[in-house]
Amino acid sequence: MNDLATLQQQIFNKFSQLKNKEDLENLRIEVLGKRGSVSKLFQDLATIDKDKKKEFASQLNILKSKILEEFNKYSSKFGQDELEKKLHSETIDVTLPTPKKPQGKIHPVSQVIDELTCIFAELGFSVAEGPDIENEYNNFTALNTPPNHPARDMHDTFYLDENKQTLLRTHTSPVQIRTMLNDKPPFKIIAPGRTYRCDSDQTHTPMFHQLEGLYVDKNVTMADLRGCLDYFLKKFFEVDQIKMRFRPSHFPFTEPSAEVDIGYEIKDGKITIGQGDKWLEILGCGMVHPNVLKNAKVDSSKYQGYAFGVGIDRLAMLKYGINDLRSFFESDVRWLEHFGFNANDVPSNYRGLAR
Amino acid sequence: MNITLAWLKKYLRTKSTTEQIAEKLTSIGLEVESISSAKSNLSNFKVCKIIKAIKHPEADKLKICDVDIGDGKITKVVCGASNARDGLTTVYASPGTVIPKNGMKLSVAKIRGAESFGMLCSESELNLTEESDGIIELKNKQNVGDNFFKENLDPMIDISITPNRSDCLGVRGVARDLAACGEGTFVQEKLEKIKINSKKIIKVEIEKESGCFQFGSCFIEGVVNKESPDWLKRHLESVGQKSISAIVDITNYVMLDMNRPLHAYDADKISNKIIVRKSKKGETFQALDGKKYTLSNNSCVIADDSKILGLGGILGGELSGTKMNTTNVVIEAASFDPISITKSSKELGIITDAKYRFERGVDPNSLEEGLIKSAKLIQEICGGKIGKINIAGSSTYKQRKINFILSNFKKLIGFEISKADSIKILEKLGFKVKDKKTSLELIVPSFRPDINQEVDIIEELIRIKGYNNIPLSEPNRVVLKSVLNYQQKIFHYTQRSIASIGYLETVTWSFSNSKIDDFFSEKKLRLANPISSELDTLRTSIFSNLLIHSKNNVDRDCKNFMLFEIGPVFYGNQSGQQNTIAAGIRLGNKIDKTWTEKTIKTSAYDVKSDILYILIDLGFDEKKLVIESKTNQSFHPGRSGAVHLGSAKGPLLGCFGELNPIILNQLGLENYSICGFELYLDNITEPKKKYKDARSAFVVSKFQVVERDFAFIVSKDIKASQLISLIKSCEPQLIISIDIFDVYEGSNIEQGKKSIAFNVKMQSMEKTLDEKTIEDVSQKIISSVQSSTGGTLRSS
């Protein structure tokens, strides 16, 4: 018995001195090889007395399994060491440049349309649309601007025929008419879209974008209009307070009409919207003229409401610090990459309008 | 409309400054565009003293003067005047000054090598006299550095008058509005009286449908026309009007004062009588502006027996106008049809102050007052005897009555206005008010053509009361409809999907250059009045603008990009004849060589991959997208395809491929093989099932997948899609995927044929496939391809 204990001790001492896989293999041959010290004891079993044989065999098997366990332990330890050594030698230059995946962008005008849609959706507005080619009636006459009205001169109109019957809409307001003619009140819509005027200089482009708003119901007041615009401007410019001024103006399709200014200041060459002692004209609005309601077959003795129109490109310029209106439409890919928005930046009420 | 505080004070008692007045004006809807000094240029002329004048070394007649202009320094000025001498006090103009006589702007100049900072002025250069011989000699008493022009003109307030407020095209109207809102008190003038001391009268006939309702005239005989007196000149000049002669200035003055256009005729140039009539086609007219106009048959003209004297309400004639030697004058104050004026002036391209006012509305009751005012002034300044005022025709003016229910103000605006306030404001604005307890009965003043109904009264009240009194109510969030309809959602999804695979979104005009756009369609949708010949047609394809802008980008050395636009294209010039299309292009290589990869050119397959990705992203089942090779003229006829839904006859969802080289050549883009796609969003219709209901159950097999490869040699014109559907049909239940991993033409392959290799995966829902089944399917595939296409198995 004692012999086995001593042998175990000797073998285990040798394990602790092993340095690598080869040493381990040598030890395996020395102990468990054909002529190994433990193998030999198994061979000797045949010569042992029957009554002692069982006892000894059992002891020997226990020893063997202990040794095997130790072998496995060292084998995996040396395997691990080797793998680690190998991995450390396998290096790459991670600073080498990789192919660039193209990064698509959404145009600022589209992004701002989505922002506006998100804001007005929260107030219950839905999106309406109308065609870019309009007839003279929807664009002017129905909007209380009869032929030869001086207000027509305020719009430099693109015509498609010499008789001036079809034209490219000069504002999004004809969508008001279409919406009201096609449905029954109440109406609560915004209409973003392309608009056209025959005008081109530093601050005017022959095509630009407007967003029309229309809310007609039984008791919609000018106070509601102010409240709505205050909400919209604060949300859009992402400020808690906004200085807003209503100024009387004239649009044939609203009465009373107002132009809306917002306060701003310029500090260190940067514009801050909402505060300050300077005023910036931002949109036109008013209460829908009873004549317009009549033209759109809405009973003006029962229904009233407000309408507003705002320049989308201008909003984009103000919010995102873009100085040149013309650059919006030049398709300069460097500009689009610079001012564009990631496809994933969808304005939403839970994630916010913008990052 | 330009006014000054000084002029305004004629009708308004106020102590406010110009700035305070301007702020008030803006707040009541008379928006002040600017406040400027009409003659600020004049303050550039300073009294100066020549300290020393020495002869210019390079020019005999020039002198270099050291001038004291009162700033404690010496200013060098080169001067050619013979009287420039040491110690002379004269007038100096600094660089930047505009010289009144010739309108030239001074700059620092080198005259024969000597720098000159400004100029010493002669009387003629300042339009003081005709004296041009030598510079002005002032008395020594005058302080060096003082302004030479003592008159400090009032700053000019430029008001942008909205088209409805014609009454404010006269100073009196502006004053009335200011007084109504509490800014000073309005000075009511008494109607002036004139003494009739001439029997002269001009006979006037107004023909029917002439475009003129009433024609008032006043004959003044024996006048001496002259330069206007200072006060009159100053009034006109302070609002930017040129002084011409006393008579003309007086008519302009009355017009600006009370929005009553007038015209003065030289009575001796009128033969017999005045006839107001419609023009005859082809008639010509020599106007005051020096131009000759040929008229059509619907302008209102003021004529005599033999000629046209003026275009009614628009412009006077040259022959009948007053001159300095005019001795007998006829003043006209008339009432014209605004529509007739608009039509004629547009047709002839004439814009005048009178036309502008008549179009917007001139008080039809102001004929007599205008004539009296002007006649009186003419008599005061030019002498003469005044004849009787003669008004021909009859007024079409009808007094308007409006019943204003007080509570309607609150109903529309959102807060209450008191009856007392309402009455006060309306009376000050010139309304006659009768209190009817809960309402007011109002008579609209004749100078307010814009007031027609109750809502106009409400606007007047809130305008004067102040828009900033309107309360701000919390917006309600009542939802009437869903925010976006299906088409609008598809628009947004498509837009974001395209951007997500690397395309840059752009926005271009809805019009384009016909030279390019005409390649895309036979439709020629020209604008009647394009802004330029390069933007003369409605676009029939988005590609036209994308390519034009691609060329610009290439010229900017950007030669590798993906660009898209989503928006309208047109197929007719009637309202609604438009489609919404998304189109994208790839320009440049798909992969530019790097240390890992070789250059790979962009091919039609890249845009095919893009369009399929987008359509699958939009929710289409890939299996239902059918690719056809017939496309449109935008594309290379052999290297493009179309995507249909369901079958080749199903809705056309999009096209893709290389863009037509013929078009690329036209733009000088032939060296960039540009590929593109178009998606026809209007052809995407709302599916019957909602997304939540459209998902099928999740069923997958738990048995092993088996793969087999096949390569066939087939005729070149056999399409991959044919072979795929052929293979699939052999065992639709077991074959779960078919991939093509090699397509080869060339050596070892017979001409006109190609080798095409498939990887076919099979899997059963019920069991592990055994060898025999696999072998059977394989044989089926081989024999099916062979019998249907005549192809042969190359290897398997």
Explain this structure to me?
The complex is a heterodimer of chains A (355) and B (796). In chain A, strands 1, 4, 5, 6, 7, 8, 9 and 10 form an 8-stranded mixed sheet that branches. Chain A has a two-stranded antiparallel ribbon with strand order 2-3. Chain A is of the alpha+beta class and 355 residues long. Chain A has 11 helices and 10 strands. Chain A folds into 2 domains: 88 residues; 232 residues, Bira Bifunctional Protein, Domain 2 (BirA Bifunctional Protein, domain 2), CATH 3.30.930.10. In chain A, α1 runs parallel beside α4 and α5 packs across α10. In chain A, β7 and β8 form a beta hairpin. With 796 residues, chain B is α+β, with helices and mostly antiparallel strands. Chain B folds into 6 domains: 72 residues, Phenylalanyl-tRNA Synthetase, Chain B, domain 1, CATH 3.30.56; 81 residues, OB fold (Dihydrolipoamide Acetyltransferase, E2P) (Beta Barrel); 191 residues, Phenylalanyl-tRNA Synthetase, Chain B, domain 3; 69 residues, Phenylalanyl-tRNA Synthetase, Chain B, domain 1 (2-Layer Sandwich); 198 residues, Bira Bifunctional Protein, Domain 2 (BirA Bifunctional Protein, domain 2, 2-Layer Sandwich), CATH 3.30.930; 97 residues, Ferrodoxin-fold anticodon-binding domain (Alpha-Beta Plaits, 2-Layer Sandwich). Helices cover 25% and strands 27% of the residues of chain B. Chain B has a 7-stranded mixed sheet with strand order 28-31-32-36-35-34-33. A 5-stranded antiparallel sheet of chain B has the order 6-5-4-7-10, with no helix packed on it. A 5-stranded mixed sheet of chain B has the order 13-16-19-20-21. In chain B, a hairpin with a 4-residue loop joins β19 and β20. In chain B, α4 crosses α5. Chain B is elongated and about 130 Å long. Chains A and B meet through α5, β1, β2, β4 and α8 of A and α6, α9, α11, α12 and β28 of B.
